[in-house]
Amino acid sequence: MVGSGSSRKQRRDQQKARWKLRRQMMMEAACLIAKSLPSLVHTNARPPPKKRRYQHGRVKYKDSAGTLSVLPPTMSPWYILYCKEESPNLLPNFHRKFRNRFRLPYSNFLELVKRCTDDSNKPDGYFKRWRPGNQAAGGKPAAPLELLVLTSLRYLGRGWTFDDLTEATAISEEVIRTFFHQFCSFGADVLFKEWVRPPTSAEEAMVMCCEEYTAAGFPGCCGSMDATHVEHSRISFRNRQAHLSFKLPFPARAYNLITNHRRRIFSTTDGHPSRWNDKTLVRYDELATGLHDGTSPLCNIEFELYEYDPSTGRVRKEKYKGGWLLVDNGYLNWGVTIPPIKEANTTSEWRFSKWLESMRKDVECTFGIMKGRWRVLKSGIRVHGTDKGDRIWKTCAALHNWLLEADGLDDGWNSDWSGNLGELNEHNMPNALQTLLTLNNMSTVNYDTSGMGQGNHPQPHEGDEDVAVHHGRVIRDDTGAIIVREMSTEQFRRRLVVHFDIAFKRKELCWPTARLGREPNME
């Protein structure tokens, strides 16, 4: 048994030696062949194939000679209709059709093209690739800049695809895609900083936003705040779970927005996962956190509220300092964020909450205007990368504010109305406000818009309107004004309820409305 084991080991060692010798001989033979025939290795090697460039998606036509040629962008329908000097005279309703198709008036479009052209002449400009006079691949002139601006506006306004734009402009899909991302970068970095900004002083805030809210019974209010979701279908797989919220069946990005009653956007955050709630999003809003921390210039706003003197019971005015915002009940318990009361115990609280909910619809209307005007926010963003989706959102916000100023909707609201509140026309007020007036007159609520029959509304109780001033810990500045941001939501809201109830009984409130008979700018 011992001898057989040793012989088996010897045979295995001999086999390993033969394999090692065979590998060594093959390596030596390969080296000899490579040294003796160096030219054979190089001459027989095939050169790498040349990369062929195909013109994908370009529109072709047959000329008079019957030759199939590529249609240049300067012969495309869009260039002939919108980019030539005589284009406005081609159609009788040119300006109205242009506004409906590209969302911008023709004069604003020309101004936007000029700004893009000026940027292309800069060494570090966003559009230097499409500088007038530059040549693209093959020695051909670059695509017209005004035609590319139209493609970006159509993509944002109606949610077209890049392939659809190729058919209309005869520009390749890749060029349109590249320009679109550059345009959104220009909009997010340049246009956004120019058009989306909060008031820089208390005096400017009184003109831009506080006038309407003061007339409606909310002195010191700077705007309304809420969050919205925008579908983003190209979220990466590793981030998909965070972008699937409990409300939506698709991945989306969440944006926190602050607007005034004229629908002008003051501030908006970058996009965040849609699973984040309002309490988290508000911490990334610079305007809201500035009001809470005391670093915003709007903290210098001074206003007065009605209250009852605890000793005499007479109405007096108390001075306050600091701006605040209208929100829903999903935000943090800050003194600068005032939501409606969930469970109102008195008629004054119920009346205050109903009026606040109606006033806060301005931010909801802003969401509807933006998603209706820029359909890419409604149909969903289809570009890869969350940063690109955020630039699209900021570009749409900047163009929204630009259009408000172009149409004259950013100033001149009728908030200086004076008279009896009961003499307001019912067709100019929301249904919630009509309920307040009807309830104040002790009559039956007689409207129904749901088709489900008349509902039950709380009736006023005797004596519950006589709300005394609520005591609590307050901090005053050097002038004796109470600092709003140092109070809690409940503490400051009780004081607002008292002020609103007194102003309502004195018939000093009015509902801000836009001027009638104004037509949007089409030229």
From TrEMBL:
Coiled coil: none
Organism name: Nitzschia inconspicua
The protein, known as: Plant transposon protein
Domain annotation DDE Tnp4: ranges: 253-401
Taxonomic lineage from the root: Eukaryota, Sar, Stramenopiles, Ochrophyta, Bacillariophyta
Molecular-function GO terms, alphabetical: metal ion binding
Keyword field: Metal-binding
Cofactor or coenzyme needed: a divalent metal cation
Lineage top rank: taxon: Eukaryota
Pfam families reported in the protein's UniProt record: DDE_Tnp_4
InterPro entries linked to this entry: HARBI1_dom
